[in-house]
Amino acid sequence: MEFKRLEKWGSELNLCIRCGYCCEHCPLYRASNWEIDTPRGRLLLAYGLLTGEVDPSPYVAEKLFECFYCGNCSKSCSAKVTPTDIFTDARADLLEFGFAGQGTTVRNDEKLCMACGRCVLTCKSEALSVDMGSMRVLVDKVKCKGCGVCVAECPVGAMSQKTGFGVSREELSAAVENSLRTMNGSPKVVVFCCNWSMTPGLQLSRMEFKGAENASGIIVTVCSGRIDPGLILEAFDQGAWGVMIACCPLDECEHDGNYRAKERCALVGRLLDVLGVQSERLKLEHFATGEAQKLKNALKSFAGEIASLGPI
Amino acid sequence: MDIDVKRLKEIVGEEDVRDDIADLYVYGSDASVHEANPSVVVRPETVEEVQGIVRYANTALVPVIARGAGSSASGQAVPIDGGIVIDFKRMNRIKAIRPRDILCKVEPGVVCDDLNRALQPHGLWFPSAPESGRIATIGGTIANNGSGVRAIKYGTMRDYVLGMKVVLANGDLVTLGADTRAQASGYQLDRLMVGSEGTLGLIVEATLLLRHLPRFKAMGMAKFSKLEDAGETISDIVASEVTPSLLELVDDIAITALNKTLNMNLPQVEAIVVFECDGRLKDAVDYDMATIKEICEKNSAFGVEMGSDAKEMERIYSGRKKLFAALSRYREGLVCTSLADDMAVPSSRIAECARKIHEIGERNHVVMNAYGHCGIGLLHTKILMEVTRKEQWEDARRAVDEVYDYVRSVGGTTSGEHGIAISKAPAWKKEKADSLQMMKAIKTALDPNNILNPHKLMDAPDDWVTATKLRYPVQL
Ligand SMILES: Cc1cc2nc3c(=O)[nH]c(=O)nc-3n(C[C@H](O)[C@H](O)[C@H](O)COP(=O)(O)OP(=O)(O)OC[C@H]3O[C@@H](n4cnc5c(N)ncnc54)[C@H](O)[C@@H]3O)c2cc1C
Predict the structure, then answer these.
(1) Mutate which: B67, B98, B328, B384, vs A, most A CBs within 10 A
(2) pLDDT averaged over chain A?
(3) How far is A204 from chain B (nearest CA, A)?
(4) Going along B266-344, which residue ranges are E strands?
(5) N or C, which end of chain A has less CB nearby within 10 Å?
(6) Given this model, what pLDDT does residue B263 score?
(7) Which atom of ligand 1 is nearest to the CA of B456?
């Protein structure tokens, strides 16, 4: 089997020293804790395909179609290997051999879809198109970066993504509910946080003893573009005193998800006003990679403001 | 290998057993040059599950290889004979932080940097987190007897292990050590596990000593136009009354690599020495820094920079953590391999050893550089070579032999912190020639069926190049 596109990465794959520095902030790895879900693991798969030690299979394809393209792996690689580019080429080759994994790519439910085209307009990766003949939305699985912006944008819920990474709509709802239920102390603040602004708290370990101070209320969404207005309202409905959306600086989002988040925040803010709830309870802030301290400070001061407002 | 996967699934649950070839392949490597697939991977969450797996393996005579993050550099986590890999990442709970006792209790899969994040609000830290601490686990770091960059002042992993719970090869659970710093007489069995690379028992809980976070820190950087001067500076600092909290050497090859990959804009000199002092009193820290500056200047350093603001310190030090990988970009066509990577020599020999490493590299047609936590006599090197060319492996083999012949001749040791496993075993066996029998006797007593990480350390093959399949596409 000839992996035409993957072939050119052979020498780059040799440069990867397999140190695993890419693993820590990979949302897929954090969701499963299996080695195969690390960028290092998926690079190994690509390598195995090239050397013939791993045969293409539906399972291998599923793994290589899983990536949110947050780019943390590339940013943390000091050998300057760019895993996401390699995964994209692996996807294209696998597709050619008939292995189309679902992975993190979006699905369109034809029965619900009205082919309105809103998803097409919001997709910065140009992965979506409407086939005018059949009036169906087509998903380009090589281009789809799994940001979920279209899922949040679809007015009829026709776009969806596989569960298992903690960021599908159902999982986000469950995470909001769970974090509000387990939050001890006040004020009750829910924070939706992009993956690449390093989140506070432990990354790969757990603290389990009496009196342990865990960062509660932080929900990693991977991209802020995935947060639809309904999700924010759900948080308030379930008892949140305040909601913060921590996303990337405006021009730094691969998917323009932060622009969507900004629009939706403004919309929900107006709704809160109408409902007689102070719109200051909803806040959107921007953080760049590595601004963990700034994020910590912002969370602290937001919690202070919300505490003074009290519960709704 | 005949393994009863169904039985393993009964022990840890269906979800936590994997035997698809794709999974086995990714669990077959670490950060070394070696590769060998396991037969199955299991992820226990409790001590009982670990015991169950080991009991089964001991009866079925199947190898068991513990794995933390698989960041080892010499093949520690590579299952050379196949078998069961136990991935400890679900046993990742910090179970207690006891500031009054200055200790904590953790499961083996806790990630070192996470532990430090958890300790910080208590004003405490665990200084022995390795550079790879963002993924390296406590279990792996104990089993490799790793060390952090601040080992010169704070010691290495063995200084932080007060006790542990260990599952032995027959499945028994034993408690070694105690919750106290003072522990006199009797065999120090907890220490025996430190550095045992998963060959004597499986650590399922560790009690670690902690330290108070220092109140003040200052960092400095000195440039040298001769590598010898930098080496002498390090030897002089170590021999002086000052104990810096960090003392690192970075040579010209490393400087080039860092400038290339991380745009660090470091001056292209023959060597840089980075140093740090910490303490409770700013004046005391400043005083020590001034002494070090004097020593640097006496040895012809120029442009000594010093700073105590966090950003400045980060700038001075930022590249170091990423150096290993950055070396991969030193020169087009060369790949950075982790070979002969962490020898230690008496501190008066730093300059000589660094020079020897360069010479040996040149003589054998590979590039070798010198950097590392030289304050504890530790020198890192990497072999940069054309990995797909067969002859280069002959070159590397010779270079490795020559480096270690030198290290032994001056009373040094094969590994200062990364461990032995496969690639360093031939040299290490020469170094430890007269204690190998003792080690074998210990191994046989604790693991009579040789199931725990077999064929590593004293039992590793005599030729590291052919010990396993190499991770690069090369026909030997
Ligand atoms: C870029 C880079 C930088 C590094 N920097 C440093 C450094 O500064 N200092 C340093 O000391 N090392 C360093 N290392 C080496 C390595 O990362 C460390 O030794 C690390 O502590 C290994 O931890 P791990 O969780 O990856 O262990 P693994 O590689 O998974 O395992 C290491 C060994 O421990 C055994 N083991 C794992 N868990 C257990 C357990 N629960 N019970 C018994 N045995 C177990 C394994 O069988 C294996 O033999 C570096 C490596 C890289 C790639």
Answers:
(1) B328
(2) 93
(3) 6
(4) 271-279, 302-307, 335-337, 342-344
(5) N
(6) 81
(7) 49
In this complex, which of B22, B113, B135 lies closest to A45 when CB atoms are compared?
Answer: B22
* Residues whose beta carbon lies within 6 Å of some atom of ligand 1: A 19; B 30-31, 65-73, 76-77, 88, 108, 130-132, 136-137, 139-141, 143-144, 146-147, 197-198, 202-203, 324, 417-418, 453
Residue A189 tokens, joined:
């603040």
* A198, pLDDT greater than 70: no
Q: 3-state DSSP call for residue B63?
A: coil
CATH classification number, A4-96, choose in 1.10.1060.10, 1.10.10.10, 3.40.50.360, 3.30.540.10: 1.10.1060.10
Does residue A196 register a pLDDT over 80?
no
Q: Is the pLDDT of residue B320 over 80?
A: no
Q: How is domain A169-309 classified at the architecture level of CATH?
A: 3-Layer(aba) Sandwich (3.40)
Q: What is the third-level CATH fold of B97-212? A: 3.30.465
Tell me: the pLDDT tens digits for A238-284?
A: 999 999 999 999 888 889 999 999 999 999 999 999 999 999 999 99
Q: Quick one: which atom of ligand 1 is closest to the CA of B131?
A: 8
Closest CA to B56 of B93, B126, B112, B3: B3
A204/B114 touch (CB, cutoff 8 Å), yes or no: yes
Q: What's the Cα-to-Cα distance from A160 to each of A58, A181, A264, B5, rounded to whole Å?
A: 20, 26, 19, 35
Give contacts of B 261-320 with A, CB under 8 A: 261-262
ipTM for the predicted complex comes to 0.95
Instruction: Output the pTM of the full model.
Output: 0.96
